[in-house]
């Protein structure tokens, strides 16, 4: 009896379970509506604001130094003084250089006198004297010839000794030599110096003149002159200092106009043109500068190309060495651009966005290009008029219901 009761209870449980299983299943959970911000896709022109910094420098500058060594005896210009090209800035002791000029001048006078003597030849008195000596030697030689003929006849007649004959013969030879010497001396006086002697005298004179010019040039270099119009930027020595050739004494620069070389990335260099105007900022002071030169080569260490900009500085209230910021607006291509935060990219061209279709977020693959001012170029995947979700994409899945922030259904 007890066993039948247990079986009945079990059958009742089975029936009850079967009856319950015939009820409707529970409804699926409703997806959460995500709040997003959207914007209509449209074409626009990319605009890049390029901000570059550079250091101001004089339009032109020079480190001015003596070309000769010595002790500085005058150094009267100071920082900030305005100078013109050719103005004397400093002097070194010139005594040794003055003595060199005096010595070279004396050498020029001496060589000039010698050259004049060689070119002009002997004086009239010297020629007359030489001619008289020839006449005297001729008469003497003729007399010795007559005497020798008489003595020779006597010697043949054995009227005189051999010794007397030899003595007469030697006298004739000597008188002949005297005549020849007198004739040669007369020839030298009348014909003048040989061509090579004249050339030597002329070369000696020219060398003396060159030495004089070198000495005069060295003397002039004892005065240090400004090579350009400008302003004394730095005074690098003091009176009494011993300086050598090439030792900088002053730094002179033209600061009426300043220049700055901007490091432009090479990918942007095509947007820069000579003659265009660039906005410059120095501690809130703004001025316009003009592009005057684009350098011909890329800096291999930085990947930039130098662009020189000149700035008027008539009041000298901007200073060399200050850092200025240059701003230039660069117009890019017309296309579709999306905010960076609207694009989810995993690299390797795997990028997507979400667009609104009938109140749902639809995942859409896109091809992206360059980034410009926090916007990515969308090469493909979007078209004008699409409702692009620009905020809240990080919480979205494909097909999520969405509404705009504030509760309005899109």
From TrEMBL:
GO terms for cellular component: efflux pump complex. Residues 339-403 form the YknX-like C-terminal permuted SH3-like domain. Residues 94-209 form the YbhG-like alpha-helical hairpin domain. GO terms for molecular function: efflux transmembrane transporter activity. Keywords: Lipoprotein, Signal. Residues 1-21 form the signal peptide. Pfam families: HH_YBHG (PF25881), YknX_C (PF25989). InterPro entries: HH_YbhG-like (IPR059052), RND_pump_MFP (IPR006143), YknX-like_C (IPR058637). NCBIfam families: RND_mfp. Belongs to the membrane fusion protein (MFP) (TC 8.A.1) family. This is Lipoprotein.
């Amino acid at each position: 009896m007890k066993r039948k009761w247990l079986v009945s209870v079990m059958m009742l449980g089975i029936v009850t379970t079967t009856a319950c299983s015939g009820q409707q299943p529970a409804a699926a959970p409703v997806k959460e509506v995500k709040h997003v911000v959207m914007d209509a896709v449209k074409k626009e022109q990319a605009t890049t604001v390029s901000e570059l910094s550079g250091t101001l420098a004089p339009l032109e500058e020079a480190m001015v130094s003596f070309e000769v060594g010595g002790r500085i005896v005058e150094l009267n210009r100071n920082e900030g003084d305005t100078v013109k090209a050719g103005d004397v800035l400093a002097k070194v002791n010139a005594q040794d250089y003055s003595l060199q000029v005096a010595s070279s001048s004396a050498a020029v006078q001496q060589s000039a006198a010698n050259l004049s003597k060689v070119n002009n030849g002997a004086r009239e008195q010297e020629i007359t004297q030489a001619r008289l000596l020839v006449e005297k030697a001729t008469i003497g030689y003729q007399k010795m010839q007559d005497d020798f003929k008489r003595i020779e006849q006597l010697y043949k007649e054995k009227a005189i000794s051999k010794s007397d004959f030899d003595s007469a013969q030697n006298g004739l030879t000597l008188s002949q030599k005297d005549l020849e010497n007198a004739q040669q001396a007369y020839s030298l006086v009348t014909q003048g110096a040989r061509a090579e002697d004249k050339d030597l005298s002329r070369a000696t004179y020219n060398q003396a003149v060159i030495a004089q010019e070198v000495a005069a040039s060295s003397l002039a270099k004892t005065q240090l002159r400004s090579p350009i119009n400008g302003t004394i930027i730095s005074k690098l020595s003091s009176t009494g200092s011993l300086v050598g050739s090439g030792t900088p004494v002053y730094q002179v620069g033209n600061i009426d106009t300043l220049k700055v070389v901007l490091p432009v990335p090479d990918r942007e260099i095509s947007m820069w043109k000579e003659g265009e105007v660039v906005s410059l900022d120095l501690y809130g002071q703004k001025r316009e500068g003009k592009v005057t030169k684009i350098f011909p080569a890329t800096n291999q260490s930085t990947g930039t190309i130098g662009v020189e900009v000149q700035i008027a500085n008539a009041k000298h209230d901007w200073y060399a060495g200050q850092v200025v910021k240059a701003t230039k607006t660069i117009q890019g291509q017309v296309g579709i651009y999306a905010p960076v935060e609207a694009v989810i990219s995993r690299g390797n061209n795997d990028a997507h966005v979400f667009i609104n279709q009938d109140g749902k977020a639809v995942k859409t693959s896109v091809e992206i290009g360059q980034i410009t001012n926090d916007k990515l170029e969308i090469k493909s995947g979007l078209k004008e008029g699409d409702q692009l979700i620009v905020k809240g994409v990080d919480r979205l899945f494909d097909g999520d219901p969405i509404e705009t922030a504030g509760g309005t259904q899109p």
